[in-house]
Amino acid sequence: VQAPDLTPNTELGLTTLAREGAARNLLVQLQEIKEVSTRAGVINFSVVVSSGYTLSFNPALTAFTPSGTSAVTVQNDKWTATSQLGGARLTFQAKAGTLITAKSIGNLGITITRSGATAGTTGSVTVIITADSSGTGYDSDAANNAVTRPITAQ
User: Fold this and answer.
1) Going along the chain, which residue ranges are E strands?
2) Which helix (H) or strand (E) holds 123?
3) What is the pLDDT of residues 75-114, one digit of tens each?
4) Is 85 helix (H, G, I), strand (E, B) or coil?
C-alpha cells in the first residue's frame, strides 16, 4: 500500500543576524515525495531555534519574501501554531481540510529574531516533521523528517 511521505526543506538566503533584534524570514517547505496525498487535517511538525533566537508566525500571511531571495506564496492561514520554550519552538497542526497533495509543496513563512545570541556564535534552526503513528496519514518514512540550517550572530 502506498502512503504519503513528507520531507521538510527551508529557504533562508541570508543567515547572519548582525545585531540584537535583527530578523530574518525563513521559508518552511513541506514536500510530499511519494506521489500520495496526505490525509486532511492530520499533519504535525515543529520548528526549533537555538538559544538566543526566537520564532514568530503570522497566521494571516499569504505572501512572503525569505531573506535574500524572491517572494513566494505561503499558506500560513491553513495552520495553527503554538509557541513553546519562550518562543524558541513553534509546533504546527494542520487545520481541518488542510492537506498536501501528491508531489506538491506546502509553504509557510516564519520569522527568526536575534534575542540574546552572543556575537560570533553559530546556532541553528531545525524543522522536524512529527512522527506519524499510523504511517499512512502524512508520513511513511521517518528517516527524512528533519532539516537543520545554521544561523550566525555577527
Assistant:
1) 6-11, 16-17, 23-32, 44-49, 53-57, 63-64, 72-73, 79-84, 89-94, 105-114, 122-129, 146-153
2) strand 122-129
3) 999 999 999 999 999 999 999 999 999 999 999 999 999 9
4) helix
